[in-house]
TrEMBL record:
One of its GO terms (molecular function) is actin filament binding. It comes from Artemia franciscana (Brine shrimp). PROSITE patterns: CALPONIN_1, CALPONIN_2, CH. This is Transgelin. InterPro entries: Calponin-like (IPR050606), Calponin_repeat (IPR000557), CH_dom (IPR001715), CH_dom_sf (IPR036872), SM22_calponin (IPR003096). SMART domains: CH (SM00033).
Length: 190
């Protein structure tokens, strides 16, 4: 039994904020993420993107840790098989550390309670998609668009100096400009 089921229902501003967070959850993206996790681990029993199923599959963190180990062996040293809250949250935290090591930026990860207490499952989906985009570096199948590689360009001093003498079209052009037809204000009445 998770902490989320033992809490009182939210009300007022907290309930409104939770409804807004829940509205960002996309079952299609969640299903795509679970299918990708299953492709790498073969451990996901049900890849439905339904919010309840997504939570049930990932809440103890075991599959997330196995995902990290499928990407790079030994990423998570010891996966806790216990259903105790502390052990499950430890699994989730170890996955998050591995995800950061794989290159997922901090703003695309989630807090442990977002998953454990079912507070923000859309951020969990976003984290999995972010991790999936990084898989090109690890030779694993990914999800979503492929991340761009650096395209560093080197210019010689001669090329840089040549660029300084060109007037950019952003400055506009005065070709064909004159003041014919320009009149301001009221015309002279006779």
């Amino acid at each position: 039994m998770s902490m989320a089921s033992e809490r009182a229902n939210k009300s007022g501003f907290a309930a409104e904020a939770q409804r807004k967070i829940n509205s960002k959850y996309d079952p299609g993206l969640a299903q795509e993420a679970l299918e990708w996790v299953n492709k790498l681990t073969s451990k996901v029993p049900n890849t439905s993107g339904d919010q309840e199923n997504f939570y049930e599959v990932l809440k103890d963190g075991v599959i997330l840790c196995e995902l990290a180990n499928a990407i790079e062996a030994g990423s998570v040293k010891k996966i806790q098989q216990s259903k105790m809250a502390f052990k499950c949250m430890e699994n989730i935290n170890m996955f998050l550390e591995a995800a950061r090591k794989f290159g997922v930026p901090a703003e695309e990860t989630f807090q442990t309670v977002d998953l454990w207490e079912k507070q923000n499952l859309s951020s969990v989906v976003n984290c999995l998609h972010s991790l999936g985009r990084k898989m090109g570096k690890y030779g694993k199948p990914g999800i979503g668009p492929k991340e761009a590689d650096k395209n560093v360009r080197e210019f010689t001093d001669e090329q840089l100096k040549a660029g300084q003498s060109v007037i950019s079209l952003q400055y506009g052009s005065n070709k064909g400009a004159n003041q014919s037809g320009v009149n301001f204000g009221n015309s002279r009445h006779m």
